[in-house]
Amino acid sequence: MKDTPGHGRLAHAPADHPAVKPAKVGVLIANLGTPDNYDYWSMRRYLNEFLSDERVIDLPRWKWQPLLQLIILTKRPFSSGKNYKSIWNHDRGESPLMTITKDQTAALVARMEAAFGDSVMVDFCMRYGNPSTESVVEKMVKAGCEKILFFPLYPQYAGATTATANDQFFRALMKQPWQPAARTVPAYFDNPLYIEALAQSVETAYAGLEVKPDLLIASYHGMPKRYLMQGDPYHCQCQKTTRMLRERLGWGADSIHTTFQSVFGREEWLKPYTVEHVAELAKKGVKRIAVMAPAFSADCIETLEEIQGEIREAFEHAGGESFTYIPCLNDDALHMDVLAHIATENLRGWLD
Fold it and tell me: Are strands 288-292 and 215-221 parallel, antiparallel or unpaired?
C-alpha cells in the first residue's frame, strides 16, 4: 500500500477505488455518561436514556415506561439538574466527569504514543449521552482502526455497568460495513497495580490529616440484591477489592467497611447502605471517618454531590465530627500508568 498523509491507495486497485486509511489499533475507553447541561430538557434526555436501559431497570417495559415517562421524568430532571448545577464545571461548560474523562484520555494518549507511536488511536465515549459509543466507533473506523480494544472504566464487573457498555459497543459494531476486530477489557478489581493506586491515594490523604480517621468507608455504587442472587459477581468483587486494599495497607480486620450507595426504588439493594451506615457509626460514637469510592474511576455526581453532600450530612447530623472524602483516582499519574498497563496487556498479539 502506498501511503499519503492520512490516506492510502491499494497498489493494484483501479483509480476510482475508495481511499484506504493506514491500519491502526484503537483503544476506546468508556465511562457511564453525563448530561450535556443541567437544564430540564438536557437532564430529561440523559435520564430517559439511562433509565430506559434494561440492564439498569429490568422491569417489563409495559410496566416501567409509563411510570418513567409520565411521573419520574416530569419531576426528577429538576432535582437532578439542581444537583448537577452544584458540581458543574462552569469554566469549561461541562460536568466534572466529562472534564476528568477528557484528562484521562489525554494522559492515556501520551502513554500509548510513547509506547507505540502513531499506530494506536485512543479516544473515549459515554454509555449514555455524548460522545456516544456509536459515534466514536464510527470515528475510529474512518480513521483506519481495523482492531479496537474496548475498555470500560469499571474496576468491578456489573451487568448494569460493564455489560451494558459492552452491549452498546457491540451494537455499534453491528452497523459497520467493514467490522473491525474487537476485544473487551475484563474487570480489574483485583489487579495489584490498581490496588496499589488505591492504597497510595489513602496514604496520601491520611498524610495530610492532623488526626487519623477512626474508620475508612469503601462506598461502592449499589445494585438490587436480586442481581447478586441471579449471579452478578459485583458484590463479591467489591468485597475482594476492599480486602486486598486492607491487606496492602496492613490494617486490622475491622478498619475498612464496605458499603453501598445510590439506592433507587423500593426493593432491597446490597447492604449496608452507606448513608445509613455512617449515621449508625456516628450514633455509636465514631467521630472521624474517611470515605472513598473504589468503584468509580472518576469523580462524578455520585461522589461529588452524594458522598460529599447527603452522606456527609447524615454522618454529621448523627454526631460525627470529622468527615474526609478521598477523591477517585481520576487522572492521577499512577492511575493512568495502571490503565496504560492494563490496555497494553490486552493488546498483546495485536501490537509488539
Answer: parallel
